[in-house]
Amino acid sequence: MNVVANNVADNDCTRMVDPSQWKVDPKGSYFAFCCNETVNGFEQDYNNFPWHLIPKDMPVIGDMSSNVGTKDIPWDKFAMIYMGA
Questions:
Q1: What is the reported pLDDT for 28?
Q2: 58: burial class by Cβ within 10 Å (0-12, 13-18, 19+)?
Q3: Cα separations (Å) of 63 from 5, 8, 16, 32, 56?
Q4: What b/e sequence results for 19-39 when a residue is b if at least 16 CB atoms lie within 10 Å of its CB, and e otherwise?
Q5: What is the phi/psi pair of residue 80, to 5°?
Q6: H or E element at residue 7
Q7: Which residues are within 8 A (CB) of 9 and not within 5 positions of it... i.e. 6 or more apart?
Q8: CA distances from 21 to 5, 16, 27, 32 (A)
Q9: Backbone angles phi, psi at 71, to 5 degrees
């Protein structure tokens, strides 16, 4: 597994790690991310998310366990979305 950004270690989940520091493996099988962090209230802004850093044909997987239905979802950007309780 290639960890692209670790918001827990880098900033206690209060903001996204600067995308210029991301190291997306172009040979990766997929790109997965948690779309929000409940404790500190950090939530991805899909309009400003660095989609351009993810290789074009790489499936994007989103964990929306805590925020599905809170905003419009750019369905065309995701290959799969999951949530749990």
A1: 93
A2: middle
A3: 15, 16, 15, 8, 20
A4: eeeeebeeeeeebbbbbbbee
A5: -155, 145
A6: helix 7-11
A7: none
A8: 8, 11, 18, 17
A9: -160, 170
The Cα–Cα gap between 67 and 58 comes to 23
Question: Dihedral of the CA atoms 9, 81, 76, 42 (nearest 10)?
Answer: -40
pLDDT tens digits, 5-14: 655 555 566 6
Count of Cβ atoms closer than 10 Å to residue 54 Cβ: 20
pTM of the model: 0.80
